[in-house]
Design a protein that fits this description.
Oligomer: single chain
Strand content: 5-15%
Number of strands: 13
Shape: globular
């Protein structure tokens, strides 16, 4: 990854292993050794020493006295009590233990008390795999409220963000999550049906044919003895039925020797396709390499021996699915939530109906572009505009249409919307800024529609997208004075009272822009007498019109169009013309 995507972000999973704490600890040691800076903490029932060790390793203060936390955690949670632990500082008992082990210093332990355990909390609702099947509309607001409460209590410099996962499969579900306050959304089930997933073609085909009700709960391999379940695909596989029977046997008998003939035949003929003795030998070979203490415990505890053997089937069922083992199709374990069926219904009849055409990028762009479109429709309706039902539909598009929608305003969509609410105009006319819709088209709520575009130039933000990105990331746009503006040697004086000098050495500065006067019909000879802000205002105004859907080739009523231009600071020619 470091070689193929230099400079781009990536991360790895860190799953809670209650039955194998040494495995979790070894994974954290490996991540710290290799400099892995981002992990997704999954399936945690409580905090553990390894996950706290990962979070606080390398914590320090920079030259400005700000706390720097090198390792980032995104915690996936479905219960408020677990979320509360990740939204709180690391537990003191773990910090004391890490100090005693020499992993951190006392000063690092004190710094750790000022940070939350996680940078981001993902509200995991009704999802594939480990899940509490909780509705997102209940879980997300609860975690947002908890985040606000704990952030205020601990006075965090940056409160953790809260995202949404589970059930995110269509534009409507993504738009709903964002409208409830989610900082981001995460997809899972729908990604498994994409061509890049680590599963097999056979599984991708099964997933592409699933409906919203073709899922069920089955025992989890990693938490089998605890009775924890995972949500899996039920269509086309008998795994859920067979896995539940294993757990019933585990609860009913004390060991393999206590099984009756019928149950033993089921295990040997149907599940393991080998004698129990042969199956146990394979199990011993696995644990001899992974964790020999499990074998020692199994020899002393028949119940544990049975659990290890049953877990072997549960673990192999996922491997058979990923490898596409044909004669094991009825045993495929495929983690899947109802989102998969919702996505399939949305994609029916579209370019994404076939799994062969599904890529992760195409799926993500379709969901997010659709969510943006639906959010705009919702905003119009909230203003009292009677938007026709078809405007709220966003079927999946192919790659070419997506690139077009992402690179420029969707003029076709604007045209459809304007045609539907402005019926008294001739077909194909685009409603311009400030035009009034037909009363017949919108009933009694005859509100005028304004199509608004935006653009800007700010320090370290050459356009609107860069500006939003800087706000989102908290980018500091104040920097030392560039040599291309003026020389500090000529104009700087630390004494504020010094005449004709400035005591400031830093500021916000626009990057150079290659202005073409002929693009706007301006003779180059008059540029010297034209203020720079006026020239850049032309550039920004043009881009704002394009953002609203009005390209240079489009036709619209310019008499009903206006540009509101905001310029900060004194314009340059005012100074030179008015100076002594």
């Amino acid at each position: 990854l470091e070689a193929e995507i230099p400079g781009l972000p990536y991360g790895f999973n860190l799953i809670h292993s209650p039955n194998e704490p040494e495995h979790e600890a070894a994974t954290v040691s490996l991540y710290l050794q290799r400099g892995i800076r981002t992990v997704s903490a999954s399936a945690y029932l409580d905090l553990t020493l390894p996950v706290v060790r990962y979070r606080v390793a390398g914590i320090h203060q920079d030259e400005q006295g700000e706390t720097v936390v090198p390792n980032r955690i995104l915690a996936k949670v479905s219960r408020a009590e677990v979320a509360g632990r990740f939204l709180s500082p690391p537990p003191q008992r773990f910090l004391d233990e890490l100090v005693e082990l020499g992993e951190i210093t006392q000063s690092q332990a004190r710094l750790a008390m000022s940070i939350p355990m996680a940078d981001d909390i993902t509200a995991e609702a009704d999802s594939g795999g480990h899940t509490d099947n909780r509705p997102l509309v209940l879980l997300l607001p609860e975690l947002l409220s908890l985040r606000d409460e704990l952030s205020a209590q601990h006075a965090y410099a940056r409160p953790p963000r809260v995202g949404a996962a589970g059930g995110i499969a269509t534009p409507a579900s993504a738009a709903a999550a964002f409208s409830m306050g989610a900082a981001y959304v995460v997809t899972g089930s729908v990604n498994q049906a994409c061509v890049e997933s680590g599963s097999s073609d056979a599984v991708r085909k099964m997933l592409a044919e699933a409906g919203p009700a073709d899922i069920t709960m089955a025992p989890a391999a990693d938490m089998f003895e605890m009775g924890v379940s995972v949500q899996v695909l039920s269509r086309g596989t008998l795994f859920p039925v067979r896995a539940r029977r294993l757990y019933e046997l585990y609860r009913a008998v004390d060991g393999l020797e206590a099984l009756d003939d019928e149950d033993r035949k089921f295990l040997e003929k149907t599940l393991f396709r080998a004698s129990l003795e042969e199956a146990w030998s394979s199990c011993v070979a696995f644990w001899a390499e992974r964790d020999p203490t499990q074998i020692e415990r199994a020899e002393a505890d028949p119940k544990h021996k049975m659990a290890l053997l049953f877990r072997a089937y549960l673990g192999q069922s996922s491997r058979w699915a990923n490898q596409g083992v044909a004669d094991r199709k009825l045993d495929y374990q495929v983690w899947c939530g109802p989102a998969m069926g919702a996505f399939n219904r949305w994609a029916a009849g579209s370019p994404l109906q076939s799994w062969e055409a599904r890529t992760v990028v195409a799926v993500a762009h379709n969901i997010l572009c659709g969510a943006a479109a639906l959010s705009r429709v919702a905003a119009l309706r909230a203003q009292g505009v009677a938007v026709p039902p078809e405007a709220g539909q966003y079927p999946p598009r192919d790659g070419a249409h997506l690139l077009s929608a992402l690179s420029q305003p969707d003029q076709d969509a604007s045209k459809r919307l304007s045609d539907s609410v402005d019926g008294d105009r001739e077909p194909g006319a685009v409603t311009s800024v400030g035009s009034s819709p037909s009363p017949d088209a919108v009933g009694s709520t005859a509100e005028p529609i304004a199509i608004v575009g935006m653009d800007c130039m700010f320090p370290k933000a050459e356009d609107l997208s860069a500006y939003w990105r800087n706000l989102r990331l908290g980018t500091d746009a104040i920097e030392p004075v560039p040599e291309s503006y003026w020389s500090l040697d000529d104009y700087h004086d630390p004494d504020p009272s010094s005449p004709d000098r400035t005591y400031a050495q830093r500021g916000g500065f626009l990057s150079p822009y290659a202005f073409d006067p002929t693009e706007f019909g301006i003779p180059p000879a008059v540029l010297e007498a034209t203020d720079t802000s006026q020239l850049l205002g032309l550039v920004v105004a043009k881009r704002a019109l394009m953002d609203a859907g009005y390209s240079p080739d489009a036709q619209w009523d310019r008499s009903r169009t206006s540009v509101v231009l905001g310029v900060t600071g004194t314009q340059e020619l005012v100074v030179s013309l008015g100076a002594r």
